[in-house]
Design a protein that fits this description.
- The protein is mainly beta.
- The chain has one domain.
- The chain is about 0% helix and about 40% strand.
- It has a five-stranded antiparallel beta sheet, with no helix packed on it. A five-stranded antiparallel beta sheet has the order 4-5-3-6-12, with no helix packed on it. Strands 8-10 form a two-stranded antiparallel ribbon.
- Strand 4 and strand 5 form a beta hairpin.
- The chain is globular, with a radius of gyration of 16 Å.
- The mean pLDDT is about 85.
Length: about 170
């Protein structure tokens, strides 16, 4: 619960160049300290008290538990949302973080292959209220908490992309 309350989180988007085996991105080892070829950050804005009867909104951080009838599919597993007040009783040890990248975010970048979840990012003066921040407008990236590598994602001006992580603390 304490980790969840430490907002804001930022998603760092990067890795525009191909992997050595483009159709088989490297596995994350846990030793990574940065997002490669980082070109921007998107601030998470989430509903701190989501309605457990509704699916998570596009900008959220919620407790989830594995459930074969769950509505959330992540890495071939199904999950369902658990209300904060029920997290302890339901042994919810996982958090779902997700955002939808704004259509106008990073107009010069058309592909990416890596996303990281950052906590403690310190925007430069004048950028504190921005939801999308270029790396050069960040004084301190904070801590990279989670990283995901994947096949190339092609961005187009008319396509919304949802980025999500489920982190297990159990």
């Amino acid at each position: 619960m304490a980790f969840k309350s430490q907002e804001p989180f930022y998603f760092g988007i990067g890795r525009t160049s191909p992997w050595s085996q483009e159709n088989k991105p490297p596995n994350v080892t846990g030793e990574e300290t940065e997002v490669e070829e980082l070109f921007g950050f998107v601030k998470s804005k989430f509903n701190v008290e989501p309605d457990p009867e509704e699916p998570p909104d596009y900008q959220s951080c919620v407790f989830v538990v594995e459930d074969s009838d769950g509505e959330i599919l992540y890495r071939d597993r199904k999950y369902r949302v658990v209300a904060d007040e029920d997290a302890h009783n339901e042994f919810a040890t996982s958090l779902l973080f997700q955002i939808t990248l704004p259509l106008d975010a990073f107009p010069g970048e058309t592909t990416y292959r890596q996303v990281g979840l950052f906590l403690g990012l310190d925007p430069s003066e004048g950028y504190e209220g921005d939801d999308v921040i270029a790396p050069e407008n960040v004084d301190d990236v904070g801590e990279l908490y989670s990283l995901s590598n994947f096949r190339r994602i092609n961005r187009t001006p008319d396509k919304l992309e949802r980025v999500k992580f489920i982190i297990n603390f159990g």
